[in-house]
Amino acid sequence: MTRNSLLFLASALSTSPQTGSAFAFAVGKNSFNSSTSAGINAASAATAKKSLTSRSMSVLDSFFGKKQFDAPCVMGDESIMSPKAHGTSETPVQKNLRWNCDYDTADRICNFNRHYAEYAGYWTSTTFVEEAREQHAKEGQITFYDSNTGKPLFIAPKGRDLESFLKESASHGWPSFRDEEVVWENVRCLGDGEAVSVDGTHLGHNLPDGKGNRYCINLVSVAGNPVEEK
């Protein structure tokens, strides 16, 4: 079974009726749809969500275990994703995300989520491909910024042309980066393969293949605008 299949299996198990929870998240076009009974209150919703997340994480850990990925991948620890002012981050995502990425979807995936993703192919429904080709023609590369902080996270393509990057991303369903395209100053990989920013933004997962580490990343997580450092 592939790592992609295991991720989807974990999602399916975590949303099964066995959880006894009215909270269910769907990985699909309307990412993170939730179904709750009419009378559920905020406290019970938060408890259900916590239980759901814990179950999903335990399922993933039982399959993946804790790993040490080879350099240049920079490993991080769980403390990066500790609760902060806004989920796992200090701030919400930027309001004016690039490529017409949806704010609500981005904020949920970046800050209140550890394993779920925008639906496969979401990035092709945005203006990304067209704008990426235009930017690449002018500058030779595209910089992808943290949707929360505006820090650079990935620069692509490197070691390949743009069409190769787009082709690989299309074949997997999400923007897919290689080691040399990661800005390691701002990105970490956790032991279960979760890719995160140093500020607590959930980005996606490292799903290695025959070519090495492959970082399968949500476009909504890297659609920020650059922010000048103070």
Give a quick set of tags describing it.
7 strands, 230 residues, five-stranded antiparallel beta sheet, alpha+beta, two-stranded antiparallel sheet, 11% strand
State the share of residues found in helices, binned by percent: 25-40%
The H/E string reads HHHHEEHEEEEE
Instruction: Classify the secondary structure makeup into a structural class.
Output: alpha+beta
Largest sheet: 5 strands, antiparallel
Spatial strand order of the main sheet = 3-7-6-5-4
Query: Could you say which overall geometry the principal axes of the C-alpha atoms support?
Result: globular
Radius of gyration computed on alpha carbons = 17 Å
Number of helices: 5
Describe this structure in words.
The chain has 230 residues and is of the alpha+beta class. It is built from five helices and seven strands, in the order H-H-H-H-E-E-H-E-E-E-E-E. The chain has helices spanning 3-14, 42-64, 103-111, 128-139, 162-172, and strands at residues 142-145, 152-156, 176-177, 187-189, 194-197, 202-206, 215-217. The chain has a five-stranded antiparallel β-sheet with strand order 3-7-6-5-4. A hairpin with a 4-residue loop joins strand 5 (194-197) and strand 6. Helix 1 (3-14) runs antiparallel to helix 2 (42-64).
